[in-house]
């Protein structure tokens, strides 16, 4: 029975690792597509890249949710495994399983943070496009409140419409924003679990450091005691021999 559970856990871990690797590849594709988008000038090419990015963004959401579900499944398996003889909380087996789970959660959190950073990059670049188009049309610099309103509404403003036609990234920005918002609970949940696990690890590390420090102090006092003893022995020998009386 133990072998079956171990095999299942191993398979689950491999699936999560594969999903995180897929997220990394999708992130690279989106980053490359964003750079490609900035270089093209034809509307047809822009539309094709935009469609490709939207498809990848949808895929990111699906994979991230699936990875989160698998991690929750792994947590349940870890708790159930603690009921087995010799596998209780703090045992070698439990520490190994917990460490593996924490590592996977941290990797997923890092990937989702990378997607959020990309979303912020696209948002900033998109904002700059709107600002440039506004200045081109009006020869005046629009204030931040006006720019924010154009970005938020996305319609009814001639300047904003031209910016969308020129760059085509308005919907991509909105999709990325929705993605990050939808995955917010993943980030918060993983952050909480990782922090909790790190606290346990750090408390154990602190105890270990304290033990090492105590051991080091003990060795120091032993050395001092030996040194004092040697000095006493030398004094006794010198007193008995009295080399100065011979001279």
UniProtKB/TrEMBL annotation:
It comes from Phoenix dactylifera. One of its GO terms (biological process) is exocytosis. CDD domains: SynN. Residues 13-77 form a coiled coil. It is a single-pass type IV membrane protein. One of its GO terms (cellular component) is SNARE complex. The chain crosses the membrane at residues 221-241. Keywords: Coiled coil, Membrane, Protein transport, Transmembrane, Transmembrane helix, Transport. Residues 172-211 form the T-SNARE coiled-coil homology domain. One of its GO terms (molecular function) is SNARE binding. Belongs to the syntaxin family. The gene is LOC103723513. It is found in: Cell membrane. It comes from the Eukaryota. The keyword Protein transport applies. This is Syntaxin-132-like isoform X1. Gene3D superfamilies: 1.20.5.110, 1.20.58.70. PROSITE patterns: T_SNARE (PS50192).
